[in-house]
């Protein structure tokens, strides 16, 4: 019998009716003869509510207790789904992360899965039961509950699939991975039939939150066949996944399994960066190190970096950090003022990063210049640029974000016809 992991996100389990709908998807796969493990998220909005309680309780909270609180949403939906399945006559049982166990590192709120012993899940399958597992949570080396970072149930699902040598279907509120966030380019975004792990990894890490980045990394490393599909499709539709990989949604797979390759496959955006400009630093060896060394020592990741041409021996260094690191970055730079020797620091949080991604870029020249021209024609100013083999990212004023994404979507022939 084939093994299958099915993951349902927050919108898909938002209330009991939706949980009943999820149970129908599970029932279909059980009837088709699969051994099924289901990973569930908390009900939509629940995790935000729990995070809010923690922050209200104390601004300087203990991260281990944060995990204790915010992991609880998934426990509720796992139990409810098991009850609904049992009520439909399908044997099922729920699991918390620690019961499986899903072992993780000790970094609370951002733990990484280190090991999953599949034995308990396999025994439960032998007893003919569906395993319903609370996503997002695990157990740290000290026996305390951990969570995997926001959106972490995707990673729970892929990790469980890897441990069980199963296929993994991620059910969400859109019917696949689109050329860009369908919420931004609603009428023109197109569903992608197949996308490579590498491209999906870039899109996720550049802001496409349809899959948590770590889940794609794990799928790529362990070669887990990963599909993104909608939980709102009719659970009894005859259009299901075929042995040749065709079926509803989007298949994330090896690039060799993709016949047609676009130059640009997708466009992602992120609003979570902040821009920092360090003004009038001496243009001499060691200055960049004096800025970025202390930031690195403080564990602050820097993304895009620009140093402009010097005028009378002075230059500006501008870069981006995650918005929630901005305060700390400023503290570090202010403490280093004498050492760096800058005149002033400006910051802005009204910026957005727009990225084009595609493995086709490896073999085509002129992709970046087309991106810059397209934005110039719309009057969008570029504040910083970064590139890698299969992506180009630009930082722009947040006010132009939608316009920029739409223009690039059209320019790179991604619009639905
Ligand atoms: P879930 O709760 O099921 O995990 P998420 O909200 O985390 O769902 O992810 C699904 C959302 O991801 C979609 O509603 C969509 O707005 C967003 N999204 C961003 N980029 C893309 C993309 N390229 N393709 C599909 N969805 C995307
Ligand atoms: N419930 C968690 C969150 O909202 C995990 C998840 O949904 O993937 O981040
Ligand atoms: Mg998600």
Q: Which descriptors apply to this entry?
A:
417 residues, alpha/beta, Carbamate kinase, VC0802-like, eight-stranded mixed β-sheet, four-stranded antiparallel β-sheet, globular, binds adenosine-5'-diphosphate, binds aspartic acid, binds magnesium ion
Written account of the structure:
This protein has 417 residues and is an alpha/beta fold. It folds into two domains: 3-255, Acetylglutamate kinase-like (Carbamate kinase, 3-Layer(aba) Sandwich); 266-411, VC0802-like, CATH 3.30.2130. The chain is built from 13 helices and 20 strands. It has an eight-stranded mixed β-sheet, with helices on both faces. The chain has a four-stranded antiparallel β-sheet with strand order 13-18-20-19, with helices on both faces. Helix 1 links the parallel strand 1 and strand 2. Helix 12 (367-377) crosses helix 13 (401-411). The two termini are 41 Å apart. The model has no long low-confidence stretch (mean pLDDT 96). The site of magnesium ion has 3 residues, from loops.
Summarize the structure.
33% of the residues lie in helices and 25% in strands. The protein has 417 residues and is α/β, with parallel strands linked by helices. Helix 12 packs across helix 13.
Helix-strand blueprint:
Elements: E1 3-8, H1 16-31, E2 35-40, H2 46-57, H3 63-70, H4 72-87, E3 92-95, E4 102-104, E5 113-116, H5 119-126, E6 130-134, E7 137-139, E8 145-147, H6 153-164, E9 167-172, E10 194-196, H7 197-205, H8 213-222, E11 226-230, E12 250-253, E13 266-270, E14 273-282, H9 287-297, E15 302-307, E16 314-322, H10 326-335, H11 337-340, E17 344-348, E18 351-357, H12 367-377, E19 384-388, E20 391-397, H13 401-411
Parallel strand pairs: 1-2, 1-9, 2-6, 3-6, 9-11, 10-12
Antiparallel strand pairs: 4-5, 7-8, 11-12, 13-18, 14-16, 14-17, 15-16, 18-20, 19-20
Helix pairs in contact: 1-4, 2-3, 6-8, 7-8, 12-13
